[in-house]
Structures are given as structure tokens and as C-alpha cells.
Write a structure and sequence with these properties.
This protein is mainly α. The longest helix is centred in the C-terminal third of the chain and has 16 residues.
């Protein structure tokens, strides 16, 4: 957000309450478990988790979705502070085991790992990102589009051609 001069929504009067309400509505609509209220330390400094995920993407790409899911659960379902490296390591231990998770997190201070996240951030900005959540999606025809905000999940689902569940509640697959 700093790189594009965006004001964090939590600093805009009334928007923090609105975003919380919308988050809860969309979580219910898409059947996504979510923490009641906001997690400890929100908004969190996500450098440790972002750098770790960038490292996972490079070294264990097939495990990136599981790593991301573990961190999502830790922060947005359990409400645990992902700004703490030990919390990131604990979350990722469910995917990699304790020793590998701790090693991944320990490497987040390395210049090369910092560069990975900086490069990913620059790519996101070049693709149009200006805030979170930002989704850059490629559909089955190879067409790429960006989507911003939880209120655009439906557009993401339609663009990706994901199958909707019977009865209209939730989806068989989201993202």
C-alpha cells in the first residue's frame, strides 16, 4: 500500500467497521471460516509471513497452497499474531514439520529472501495492485486478470469458471 500511496482502510473513518461487516458477510456467503472480530495486532506487519511464503514458492512450490492455507487459518480463523516469526513457524510446522518450518522462517532475514518478496511486490504493482486482497488469476484459456477486494470474489469465481454448489451457498472451490 505504501508503494502506491494508498491510505490503509483502517485509517479511514467508518471504513474499518464496514470492511469488518463485509468480511463477515462474504465469509458466510462463501462458507469460509473466519475469526470473530479482528485478529490480535490487526493490521499485522506481514513481512515475516510474506518473505516465508516467497521462499516457499521458490523452494517448495507444490506446497505453497498448503503453506498459505496454514497461515490463513492461523491468522484469520484462530486469530493468532502472524507478525511474530514463532507463530509463522508454528503454523508452517503443520506443512513442513517443525525443523523445516523454523529454518524457512529463520532465513527471512537473508538479503536474497528479502529480494524475493520485493520482486513479488513489484510484479503485483505492475499488474495493477493497489491494496489487499489482490488476486491475479489465470483462467483455463490462459487469460490473466486482476481482482481487488473481498467484494469481488464472485467475479473471481465466474472468471475462473469454478463450479457453484447446489442451493447457491458457498462454492465447491474458491480460488
Amino acid at each position: 500500500m505504501q508503494a502506491c500511496g494508498n491510505t490503509p482502510p483502517i485509517k479511514i473513518r467508518n471504513k474499518d467497521k464496514w470492511i469488518g461487516l463485509e468480511r463477515d458477510r462474504w465469509a458466510t456467503r462463501f462458507n469460509i471460516p473466519i475469526f470473530a472480530g479482528v485478529p490480535e495486532g490487526f493490521p499485522a506487519n506481514t513481512l515475516a509471513s510474506g518473505r516465508t511464503l516467497a521462499l516457499v514458492e521458490r523452494e517448495h512450490p507444490s506446497q505453497l497452497p498448503a503453506a498459505y492455507s496454514a497461515l490463513f487459518k492461523t491468522y484469520w480463523v484462530d486469530g493468532s499474531p502472524v507478525q511474530k516469526p514463532e507463530v509463522v513457524a508454528s503454523a508452517l510446522a503443520t506443512v513442513f514439520g517443525k525443523a523445516e518450518a523454523e529454518e524457512l522462517v529463520a532465513r527471512t532475514g537473508e538479503a536474497e529472501v528479502k529480494k524475493l518478496l520485493n520482486s513479488n511486490t513489484e510484479l503485483a504493482l505492475q499488474s495493477g495492485a493497489f491494496g489487499l486482497p489482490w488476486f491475479e488469476c489465470t483462467n483455463s484459456e490462459g487469460v490473466k486478470k486482476g481482482f481487488w477486494g473481498v467484494d469481488h470474489f464472485g467475479q473471481v469465481v465466474d472468471f475462473l469458471g469454478l463450479e457453484k454448489r447446489e442451493g447457491g451457498e458457498g462454492f465447491r472451490s474458491v480460488l
